[in-house]
Amino acid sequence: MIEIPISPLELDPLTRSYWGQWDAYTIGQLAPLAKNQCYKPKFYKAPASGDELIGAYQYATYGLRIPPGDIIFGFYCPALVSSAAAPAYNLQITDSALDHKFWDEPIPSFFLGNYKPTYLTADPLQTAGLVGSFPSLLTCPHPVVGDGLFFVEIWDTTGGTSGPQGSAQRVELVIGVLEVMECQA
Predict the structure, then answer these.
(1) Is residue 7 part of a domain?
(2) Which residues on adjacent β-strands are paired with residue 53?
(3) Residue 92 to residue 105: CA distance in whole angstroms
(4) What total of structural domains would you count in the chain?
């Protein structure tokens, strides 16, 4: 009997194939890996926990290393409870091995927020709390090649009008990756 790889997310009414939304298409590409023992989910955070506070109009750069062979599938950008939107900042990620920028120009974090709630937290560092959500998927999975080094650039766009410090905001961007595991054929 032939088993067609179907993701349980295809049954989710928020994950339908609508014009301009590629979640269902990307899930179809990732579905065969769901039961594959050679990959497991892993999450990378940019910036690191100690560097999360970004000052008003500050430009910050970070290096990130993801092992070659891994597959980047999307981004988790927590939304604020008060607005159901991600904190406001601009972002650009460059794959240094390919000299490839993920976007033609830095994009607002709004485009990485994907308000499909999965949890709610009353984080004391966020006055309004955070809502966890399904990742914002890339249009197609991005394989990590070469040295696996990525250059992450973040620009604050609030000018100090939000955030726990009044002049800074907390930036949490989590990158969803399928990590290559040693597997038996």
Answers:
(1) no
(2) 170
(3) 7
(4) 1
Q: Which residues of the chain have pLDDT under 70?
A: 1-25, 80-84, 114-133, 159-167, 184-185
Euclidean distance between CA atoms 32 and 35, whole angstroms: 7
> Which of 40, 107, 42, 118 minimizes the C-alpha distance to 78?
118
80 touches 128 (CB < 8 A): yes
Close Cβ partners of 64 (under 8 Å, ≥ 6 residues apart): 44, 46, 149, 150, 151, 152, 175
Q: Which residues contact 50 (CB under 8 A, 6 or more apart)?
A: none
Q: Which structural domain, as residue segments, surrounds residue 44?
A: 39-180
Residue 78 lies inside a defined structural domain of this protein? yes
Residue 166 lies in a domain: yes
The pTM of the full predicted model, rounded to 2 decimals, is: 0.74
Residue that has been written with the tokens 């406001």 in this structure: 88
**Could you tell me the CATH number of the domain that includes residue 58?**
2.60.120
pLDDT digits (tens, 9 = 90+) for 32-81: 777 778 888 899 988 877 777 787 788 888 999 999 999 998 888 877 66
